[in-house]
Design goal:
With 335 residues, the protein is mainly beta. The chain has a single domain, classed as Glycosyl hydrolase domain, family 43 (Tachylectin-2, Chain A, 5 Propeller). Helices cover 4% and strands 44% of the residues. The chain has helices spanning 279-282, 322-331; strands at 33-34, 49-60, 63-72, 77-84, 90-92, 114-122, 125-133, 137-144, 151-152, 161-166, 175-181, 192-197, 204-210, 220-223, 228-230, 233-244, 247-257, 265-268, 290-298, 303-310, 314-321. Strands 14, 15, 16, 17 and 18 form a five-stranded antiparallel beta sheet that branches. It has a four-stranded antiparallel beta sheet with strand order 1-21-20-19. Strand 7 (125-133) and strand 8 form a beta hairpin. The model has no long low-confidence stretch (mean pLDDT 96). The structure holds beta-D-mannopyranose. Beta-D-mannopyranose is lined by residues 54, 115-116, 186, 250, 286, 289, 291, 309, 312.
């Protein structure tokens, strides 16, 4: 088993004693297991909500906060802020996030819809990335300190692009973000690329990271939660898509990326680590989708809580031990 010499987990990070957690159920042999009371967030906690899924949560002032994808009853895709004492019971604002901007340029706030947020703590604030429509899907970015005021920044990339996922610190002096160039609609292809920036505004030095490689990840791939730094590399949980005779099927896998050159994939799971099986994952507005967007970790224990969208309708929670997931990734790798 991958362990650091101190005997604690391989996670390079902080402790989060109140990370949501449930032990693996007896008889369960999978490396990732589901919360027994899933879905952890229902589809309609307020009357104008059609669905809440693909959402991002982080530790915040001893509690938890997040940015949630809420599609409303007009089926507009919106971002809403939310708070939780324990990471399980959430209060999600019924009012969508209204972004502010310090810039005089009205283009910054031009925004048609938003979905699939990620939230990343870097330096001294939280950065939100999401699929922001600016003449088509691209990566929007904003920062917040309090989950009340969100300051919109420049769009990171040209259309069309999705699944913008930041690394939680600079690497070799550069901010880094994963993304997945796409097309206007339900893209039938998808490779993950890495882009680098000196200032979180200008992005370049693009590197290929990974693309489809058969089976459950045979059509497209996209980064999931913020990568987790470990002594074994960056642990990336990602989604992979298979085209079945009944449409796309979204599963999740794991990869280990080089710590200093994170476009280099050291290992990557041949089997999925989570696939649509439970009713709430197979039945909903878009059937057969598990779509991880956030992960909480407790470094001393190696506990990992994964938040994932289920059937584009509700949010699920699943657990793993980071060191078991790393071992699984290495010993079942396609690379
Ligand atoms: C992708 C995105 C996700 C969604 C998935 C399955 O293209 O739109 O938000 O969960 O399709 O519908």
């Amino acid at each position: 088993m991958a362990k650091s010499s101190s005997g604690s987990s391989t996670i390079i990070g902080e402790s989060l004693e109140n990370v949501p957690w449930e032990e693996r159920p007896e008889g369960c042999e999978s490396v990732v297991w589901r919360y027994s009371r899933n879905p952890v967030i229902p589809r309609d906690p307020f009357p104008t909500s059609n669905s809440i899924f693909n959402s991002a949560v982080v530790p915040f002032r001893g509690r938890f906060a997040g940015v949630f994808r809420c599609d409303d009853t007009q089926r507009n895709m919106q971002l809403h802020a939310g708070h939780s004492e324990n990471g399980i019971d959430w209060e999600i604002s019924s009012e969508r996030i209204h972004f502010t901007s310090e810039s005089d340029d009205p283009e910054i706030l031009r925004w048609e819809y938003g979905y699939d947020p990620r939230v990343c703590w870097i330096d001294d604030r939280y950065y939100v990335t999401w699929c922001n429509s600016y003449h088509g899907p691209t990566i929007g970015m904003a920062w917040t300190e309090d989950f009340e005021t969100f300051h919109k920044m420049e769009n990171s990339f040209l259309p069309y692009n999705r699944n913008g996922v930041m690394f939680p610190r600079k690497i070799n002096g550069k901010y880094m973000m994963l993304s997945r160039p796409s097309d206007t609609g339900h893209t039938p292809f998808g490779d993950i690329f890495l882009s680098q920036s000196p200032d979180l505004v200008h992005w370049g030095c693009h590197r290929f990271v990974m693309g489809p490689c058969g089976g459950w990840q045979g059509t497209k791939t996209g980064a999931g939660p913020i990568p987790i730094e470990t002594t074994e590399g960056w642990l990336l949980i990602y989604h992979g898509v298979l085209t079945s005779c009944n449409g796309f099927v979204y599963c999740a896998g794991a990869a280990l990326l080089d710590l200093d050159e994170p476009w280099k994939v050291m290992s990557r799971t041949a089997p999925y680590i989570l696939s649509p099986r439970e009713l709430y994952e197979c039945v909903g507005d878009v059937p057969n989708v598990v779509f991880p967007c956030a992960a909480l970790t407790d470094a001393p224990t190696g506990r990992l809580a994964i938040y994932y969208g289920c059937a584009d309708t509700v949010v699920g929670l699943a657990f793993a031990q980071v060191d078991e997931l790393i071992d699984f990734t290495k010993s079942n790798s396609v690379v």
